[in-house]
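The freezer alarm interrupted the setup, so I double-checked each line after restarting. Inputs confirmed:
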Amino acid sequence: MTAADFQALLPFMCVAAAAVIVMLVISFYRNQTLSAILTLAGLLVALASLPIAWSHAPRAIPPLLRVDSFALVHLALLLVGTVAVTVFSQRYLEKYRMERGEFYILLLLSALGALILAAADHFVAFFLGLELLSVSLYVMVGYIFVKEKALEAAVKYLFLAGLTSALLLFGLALIYAALGSMEFSALAAAVAGAPDGLSPFLVAGMLLVFAGAAFKLSVVPFHLWTPDIYQGAPAPVTAFLATVSKGCVVAVLLRFFAPLDPASQTGLFSALAAVAGASMIVGNLLALLQDNLKRILAYSSIAHFGYILVAFLAGGENGPAAATFYLVTYFAATLIAFGVIGYLSPTDQEADTVADYRGLFWRRPGSAALLSIAIFSLLGLPLTAGFMGKFFLVAAGAAAGLWPLLIILTVSATLGIFYYLRIIIAMYSGEGRKSEGRTADAPFAPTSATVLVLLAVLLIVIGIAPEPLLAFIQAATTLAP
Amino acid sequence: MGTALLIAIFLPFAALVILPLAGRVLGPRVGWLALVFPVISAGIIINLALGTESFGQQTVAYTWVPVLGVELSFLVDGLSLFYGLVVSVMGVLITFYAANYLDGHYEFHGRFYAYLMLFMAAMLGTVFANHLVLLFIFWELTGISSFLLIGFLHGEKKSRYGARMALLVTGITGLVLMAGLLLLGIVAGEFSMAALLTAPPTDVPVGLLGGAFLLVAIGSFGKSAQFPFHFWLPNAMAAPTPVSAYLHSATMVKLGVFMVARVYPIFVDLEWWTPLLVAIGFLTMALAAVLAILSHDLKAILAYSTVSQLGFLIGFYGMGGLGGTHYDLLHVVNHVFFKGCLFMVVGIVDHATHTRDLRQLGGLGRRMPLLAVIALLSAASMAGLPGTLGFLSKEYMLKDAFYFAEAGADWRAWYPLALIVLASVLKVAFSIRLFWGIFGGAASPAVKEHFHHPGLLIQLPPLLLAACCLVFGFAPGAIAAFSETLAVGGLHLPGAPEIKLWHGVTRELITSMAIVAAGAVIFALGAATAWRWARIPLPLQFDTGFEAGVERLPKAALNLSRFLRDNKPLDYIPVIGLFLVVFLGGYFAYHWERFEVFDDFSFQEGFHYLRSFVVLLILLAVIGVVALPRWTTQLLSISIVGFLVTFYFVLFRAPDLAMTQILVESATLLLVLLLLSRFPRSAELGERRSPFSPLRKAVNLIVAVGIGGCVGLFSFLTSRQKVDDFAGLWFLERTVPDAKGTNAVNTILVDFRGLDTLFEIAVLVIAVLGAIGLLMRYRRSRQEYAEGALGASGFSVKGVRRRQ
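Predicted 3D structure, all chains:
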C-alpha cells in the first residue's frame, strides 16, 4: 500500500480510529456526553478528510475497495447521516438514563460497515461491510433493553437478518463458482465476454445477492420486518436503519449491477421490476392502515425504495445519479422525521401514534414546521427536495422506457397524499392552544436544533435550486460499466 | 419586461414572511398592508397588456435546472395576459373586500393574507409558465394554497372535510396532468409551451399524443370541477367568502378552462377533442344547473352555477374544433364579473344576517338598497337579461351552438344546444330565486333578529363589478377591442365578427327570450310550492360517495395486509422462504437445461460408502429435529447434525475445517443450553397456545423442503463446476521466487499478507482493551449496591429496575 492509498482510505480510518478511541476511553472514563463528542469529532474529521481522498480518486485499493467519486459521494451522505444520528442519540439516551458510551462504538462500527459497502469492489468487502453494519445494528435496535418492544424488535431483526445474510453468502458462493473470482470487475469481464448469455449460476447468484440486499432495503417480499423494527427500535436507531443502513446498500447494488445491461438480462431484471412495482404498491397501500407514525414511515420507506429501484433499473447514464439524488432527499427528510419523533417522545413511551401529534402546531410550532417540511418532501410536493428527486427519477425511468413502473409510481405515490395528509392535518387541527397529544415538553438541544434546521433548509434549498447538487451528483456518480 | 414579470409573479411570495409577522402587530388591519402586493402585480401586468400586440408572443427564460432541461421560462401572450389580468385585478378587489370582511371575529389575519398572496403568486405563475414542468409546479402550488385557504377555519369539521376533498381531487388529477404534460414533452421532444404552440407536433404517434391529451384533459376536469369531479367545489365553499369569490369562481377553477385553451392549438386536430370536451362540458353544464336549482344554501347555488358555467366554457372549446373560436374571453370575463360580484354580495348578506339559507332569508331590499341594486345587476347578468354583459354572452353562446348543430352530421350535434337551453332556463330560475329570496318579500325572523348594517367600503368591490356588467353590456365595442388585442395564434382567428347589441329579431334572440320566460315560469312554480321539493337525490351526491370511498380505502388495504401476512411475525420467515423457492426454483425449472444437470454425470463415480452413511445419519438427525417434541432433544439433534458434518469434513480430509466446525458446534451448544436453562418455564413450553393447523404444517414443510432442496441442488451443481484458478496456487508458485521461503503458510503470514497480520495483532490488542472496558465497571452507587447482583447494577444502568 502506498501513501496515496492511505490518504484515499482516510475517511474509513478516521471512523475506525474513532471507534477504537471511544472504546479505549470508555475503559477508563465512562461518560455518555464525552463519547458522543468523540464520535462526532471522529465523524467530522472523516468528513473533512473526504477532499483529501477526493484528490486521489479514482483509486482502487486492491482487491477490496475502490475509492472513486461515486463512493465518495455516498461516503459523504452516509457520514452526514451518522452525524445527525449521533446528535439525536445523545439526548435520547440521556432521557432513558442509558448514560453509557458503548452505543457510540456500535454506531461507529455500523457506520464503518456502511462506508465499506459504499466503496466495496469485492465480495469479501461486500459481506464484511454488511455484517459489520448488521451485527452492530442488532445490538443497537435492542439497546434500550428496558423496553420490551425494543427487545422484541432486536430478536426479530436478528433472525431475519441472519437468514438473509445466509442467502447473500450463498449467492456470493454461486457467483464465485461461476466466475472463479470474487472481484466485482470479474463480473464486468464475464458480461463482456459472454454476450449470448451468462452462466445460470451467475444469474441465480445475482438473484440471491439481490435478495440479501433487498432485505436491508426492505422491499417486497423482504419488507416484513420493517414496521415492527421501526416501531420497536429507539428513534435515533430507527433513523439510522432507515437512512444509513439502506443508503449504503443502494450504493453497493448500483456498483454491483452496473455492468449488467437490462436489455440482455430480461429474466433477472423483470424479477427486479416485479419487486420494485410490488414495493411501491404494498408500501403505499399498507401505510394507509397505520395509526403509528413510525409504522407509516416504515411502510412509506418500502415504497420509497421501490421508487429508488426504478432508477436502479433504469441504469444508464442517469440511473445512478437519480438514485443517489433521491437518497439525499430521502435522507434529509427521514432524519428530520425521526429526529423530531425522538425528541418529542416522553420517557415512558415513544410519541409515535398520530393521535400524539394532534394539535402539535399549537404546542410546538417549531417541531410541527420541521415535521411538515419533512413530510411534504417525502410526499414529493413541488418546491421541496422530494419533488426534484422524484422528477429526476421519473426522467431517468422515462429515458429507459420503464413505462409500467412509472405508471405504478405515479398512481401509488398519490396514495401518499392520504396517509401523509393525516399527519399534517392532525398536527394543525385541535382546538386552539389546548394540549391534546402526548409529547414531551423538553426544548430541543441546540446541537439537534441546528442539525434539524439545517436539514430542513437543505430540503427547501434543493427544492428551489437543485442545480448545483444535481450537476455535482450527476458528474460524480457515473459508473463506468 | 423580464424583470417586471418576475417581480409581478414572485413578489407576492415575500408576503409569506412579511404578513404573518405584520399580522401580530396589525391584527385585522394587516389586510390593507397585503393590498400592496396585488396592486403592484396588477400594475405591472396592466402595463404589459398595454404594450402587447395582437397575436404577439414573447418568452422570458432563465436557467434553473439545466441538468434536467428545466427552465424558469415564462410565456407572455394574449391568453396569459388575460388570465394574469383577471388574477391580479381580482386580487386587488378581493384583498380590499377581505380587509373589510375579516373583522375581529376571525383569528390569524396575517396567515390568511399570506396564504392568499401565495395563491395569487401561484396562479400568476401557472398562467404565465412556459416550461411544462414549471407549469405543473405552479399548478400544484395553487392546489396547496387553496387547501390552506379552504381549511383556514380548521376548527370546523366541514372546513377540514372540504379542504381534504379539494386537495385530494385536484391533487390527484394534478398528478394526472403532470403525466400528460411529461408525455406531451417527451413525445414532442419539446418542453417549451411557446415552441409547442407555434409548431404543434405533427409527425408523432397519434396514440401517444391522444394519451397526452386525455391525461391533460383529466387534469383540467379535476381543477375546473367537471363531471365526474364536480362535487368538490361546493364542499370547498366552507372557506371564508373572499376565498370562495376569488378561488372558486374567478380564478383557480378557471385553470382547467385556461389549460384547455392553452393546449388548444396542440390537440385540436385530434379526433377525440370535440367528442370528449363537448360531452363532458355540456353534461356538467346541465347537471350542475339542476343541482343548483335543488340547493338552498346561497354559496352552494353559486358553486353549482360556477360548475355549470365552467362546463359551458370547456364544451365551448370543444365545439371550437369546427370554426375556430371567437369571444371565449367574453364568456370568461362575463362570468368573472357577475359571479365574483354575487359571491361578494352573498358574503355581505351572510355577514349581516348570519345565515346563508335561502329559506330563512328575505326582505333585505329595504334594509340594504345599494346591495340590492348590485345584486340585481349581477343576477340579471347571470340570467342573461338584455342590457347586461350576460345577455351578449348568451347570444353568442346560442349562436355557436346553432352553428355547431347545423354543421354537424346527425342528431348528436344538437346535444350542446339542447343542454345549453336546459341549463339556461334553470339558470334564469335560480337567478331570480337568488335575488328575490334575499331581497324580496317580507323580512324573515332570522333577518330581524340578527341584521346589522354592512359598511359602505365592503360594498365597493361588488359595485364595481356590477357596474362592469352593465357598462360592457351596453358598450360591447370595448370588449371586442379587448379580445382583439389579446388574441392568440392558433386559438383565435383573426378578423372576429363585430359584437353588436342588436342583431334584429334572430333565432338566438327568440330562443333567449323563450329561455327567460321559461325560467320565470319555473321560478313561479318553485315559489308557489316554497321549494319544498328541492333536495339533491342520493345518486347525485357524488361527494358522499367519494367520502365513503376514501373511508373504505383502508379496508381494502387491510385485506391486502392480511393476505401478505403482515404483522404476523411467525409467518415472516415462511413468506421470505416461499418467495425464494418460487424465484430460485422457478429460475431452475425454466432454465434447467442450461445447468447441464445430467451432463457426464455418473452415480458410481461419486459414490462412497462411508460418506453416504454419514449423509444418511445427518438426514435422520434432521428428521429428529423436526419430529422430536422437546426443545432439549431438538437441540441435541441439531448438534448431532453439526458433529456429523464435522465428520463429513474429516472424510474429505479437511482437518482445519473439521476443527473449526467442532469448536463452533461445541461452543454454540453450550451457550444455547446455558441460555435456555435460564429461561422461564413458559418459554420452554413455548408461547404458542394452539398448535399449527395441518394446512399450515404442510406449508411449512413445503417451504422447508423447498429451501433445502434449492440450496442442496445449487450446491451440488456448483460443486461440479470446474474452477482451475485457485488463489492458493498463486501463493505456492510465488513463495520461493518472491518471498524466498519454502513454507507457503509462513510466507503468506509474514510476507504476502504481512500488513494483515500486523492489523490482526492490533485487533487482538484492541479486543483485550475492550474487554477491560467491559470488565471494569464504574463504581456502583450505594443504592445499586444494595440492589444486589441480580438488580439493576448487573446492567450498570442507574435507577432503572428490571421489570418483574
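Quick read of the result. The CA atoms of residues 113 and 130 of chain A lie 6 Å apart.
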